[in-house]
Amino acid sequence: MSGVLDRPHVWLPGPTAGQRGAQRPLLLLHGTGGDENDLLPLREHLAPSAPVLSVRGAVLENGMPRFFRRLREGVFDEEDLRHRVDELAQFLSAAEQEYGVSPGSWCAVGFSNGANIASALLLQRPETLTEAVLFAAMVPFRAPPQADLTGRRVAVVNGQADPMATPRHTEVLSEQLRTAGAEVSVFGHAGGHTIDARSLPRVHAFLSNS
Hints:
Keywords: Hydrolase. Residues 76-208 form the Phospholipase/carboxylesterase/thioesterase domain. GO terms for molecular function: hydrolase activity. There is one protein chain. The chain has five helices and eleven strands. The chain is of the alpha/beta class. Strand 4 (59-61) and strand 5 (64-66) form a beta hairpin. The longest helix is centred in the middle third of the chain and has 22 residues, at 78-99. The protein is globular and about 40 Å long.
């Protein structure tokens, strides 16, 4: 298992399990060109007492880390995506053992490419996550795997002016997740392909109610 954990990542422990104020562990998944440090400031806004695991994408596109390959802008390599989902699930299993995290208790928080691997993880390996917050999320699978997401909570936080993660993507992704049984909340904002700071209090409230 130790070789699996050689993948670049950051682990920030929270309060001891069961301690007052402990929160569900966050799995942070960056966007294209980011790394394991990019989303760390989100913990303070979303779940300040949560342990955090932030992991780097294993694919390079013109030197920029990503979580899976794409054929061109907006067109995903779904064969590679499926492989990378299984690879990430294996990493999470090793991390759970190493850091004492309950299996499948993660709340994935992803931006853009990270949001896409998070929703793919939900749909392909639903046992790995309990919740997900998807910022600037597209649709990972044209025909998603059959999954039972009963009891899973998902927040889709997309911009109404986003040229990549369009309102149509928001609609299709939300429907795929709801069809699989997830409880989906959509928190739209007026901006583009970004994490809109004005949306963070709503996401904080969403996570506080879990």
